[in-house]
């Protein structure tokens, strides 16, 4: 078919295609596809100028004025006599000149025109940015200035934050003097884009140069104050150990990859591999660990990928994994080998899993330990997980979040002269914290308390604490037998992993000792059947049993930003149904239009997640006379549960729902950690 005869010119065909794309794609994507079409086809200059003129008009309609101006400038480069493009530029620039990046401050009465004028004069004399002058001279909050800039430039505002990881993979080829001269800095390389901090995202000359420098990469610009950008540059390139903001080894990170390319690389030659003994790798590993410690991270996950060609480093915070950093896979062997050296592992063994322990003792932070585990993964890589074993003091039992019934029973059973008390739940559910709170409650000079732990995470005055070492045969069972010869009143055994340890624990509790331990089970009643299945004598076990506390940790709503709302009657009824209608009546909670629940929002304090910190939800089964009778009969889980429920036990989910009504968390979090 002859398209030209039918009235279809290249310009008309392309603009119709792009017009349809605008219906389904964001303007930026359409612009990228238009550039690709133009570059892949041999259009005449006049056709290209007409396509760009049409695109400029469309962008102006969508209020993307900066992009529109640039497109009209492209038209003038191709066709200097194009009067329409020239008029469009003048119109857009005249309209935008009436706006100010400080309009929000003026309209919100946070600043006056007189202050802006004085700040401009001081800025010209001193060389400081207007924003810095307004902060220093007129005490205008940086966050208010940031909001004004963000609204004006339509992009996120970023303030200087010394906890931001150094983007080593981005600054390898960039000169410090170059970044200072042009006032921009790369902040991070995420999954989908590189984030660049600039002082003026509308400076097309600067932004176009950055895009050209980082060819084939998606760029996201953020706005920052000039002084903060300079701080970032100094921080990323700093070697000054006395810097106020960089008082640890975090602050000395040099460039790890001098010849870094923004193109993806294959890990196929020895020359690409960074040496684990280099000071740069040592500092990077220290940065990761120390940052995790400061952020109260429980686990560090280091995950090389043969697909993305990057190492993803994730932090588990408040029970949830979040991405912290990505670096090229070329660094994987060096990072893993460095960690193996620190943990005393075999760096040559990459085919089998290994376990070890790292002791961290760095200036500016307390000494702490990490438990390291490696696992061979696809592509010839190794994944590594580091569990931070930060020493801490015991919490008070009254601060554990136990409801009145559970707190009363716990205090009673741990005050008994002998018997067996268990705390159960999955790994990372706070069992050790609860046990030490119980021990702290009864810890007195007249009582001798021995503990066997793997590892020792919490230390207390008055406790004699032993760390088991299975590699040399010092396991829980052997330590327990030793404790019985050391005149104990109270024994805490870290975990009942096998029949031998459980049997010794029961035996100790029947011979006049109060024994505490943990187990990995899902509920309190299930713990009884698990121990019976191990082969414990039901008669002895029932005589020893005082109680079992099951628990989970759920994230707390951020107290700084959680949003109150009035739930609908349907939502209230759903919560009641989840709790159990008959039992719920005893709570005394009634529906009304004034009933308030809370939901997550997100702020700087909680890193935008809406959650900050964790709390425990509990399920306590007491060793009542009736329950002990069922244990002697080796009753099943259902029978034990029904009896405990009659005795007043609240389930994990019920305890969580009550805390939802107290505004501490929401049902999504309770459902995440509880079996439905």
UniProtKB/TrEMBL annotation:
InterPro entries: AAA+_ATPase, P-loop_NTPase, T2SS/T4SS_dom, T2SS_E_N_sf, T2SS_GspE_N, TPR_rpt
Keywords: ATP-binding, Nucleotide-binding, TPR repeat
Pfam families on file: MshEN, T2SSE
Ranges: TPR repeats: 49-82
Protein name: Bacterial type II secretion system protein E domain-containing protein
SMART domains the record matches: AAA
Domain Bacterial type II secretion system protein E: 484-498
Species assigned in the record: uncultured Desulfobacterium sp
CDD domains found in the cross-reference section: PulE-GspE-like
Protein family membership: Belongs to the GSP E family.
